[in-house]
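Recall that a protein's primary structure is simply its ordered list of amino acids. Everything else, from secondary elements to tertiary packing, is in principle encoded there. The following example makes that idea concrete.
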Amino acid sequence: MQSMQQLLDIMRALRDPDSGCPWDLQQNFQSLIPYTIEEAYEVADAIERNDLDDIKSELGDLLFQIVFYSQLASEQHAFNFNDVAQVISDKLTKRHPHVFAGEKINNAQEQTKEWEKLKQQERKAKAGKNLAGLSHLDDVSRTLPSLMRAEKLQKRAAREGFDWPDIKGVMAKVHEELDEVQQELDADIQEQAKLENEIGDLFFSCINLSRHAGVDAEQSLRKANLKFERRFRELEKKASSKGFQVNEMTTDELEQFWRKVKLEEK
């Protein structure tokens, strides 16, 4: 707790109107959003690299974002860091009655169902008298990355029974959406808005496929990005060793180098 208090004191000093840091004094809730998102992704990157020292450092950076928001709110007499900690403590205690209130839950699946029931109760309480407008999709943040939000929306709908019974139906839907993209590409006059719409549907159905396959869509795409980056860097090295520049090579030459890189990985 001494370290936590030290961090809070540092934050207050950075925001001191007379002696604080000019950059920190310029910030507000909105301006911090991109930094918070960046820090969260850097935590994920450190975890994926299994770099424990880096994980510790990046978690500290992420914690600083929470402390920063809390300081801004404190200056507005809205809430402070202790309030934030208390809210999450209360929420976790309430959502885990099998741990803190003596209720019995037999397995993780049962616990997930109870968790969703409690969250739905919270949504109802938050909606107040406006229950007619209540949806199970409420509180799925629109600021989430689109891929993650799609998966969350699908999971919410699936819990209410709106889902394919098995993965075969999902695969058929992927093929259907791919065909519709092809139709737009083959049209005599391509309409960008329609093409964008069909490609969006294809992405959405592919995310649904990953969900049914038990694969985290965001994680799988991150790994695919890393794999592509690794292979492309290797292709650049091989091309350079032969005196080639990638942007001067033909499609067939690039394909040959790409195949070689992939074969050497196996």
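The CA atoms of residues 136 and 160 lie 8 Å apart. The chain is about 75% helix and 0% strand.
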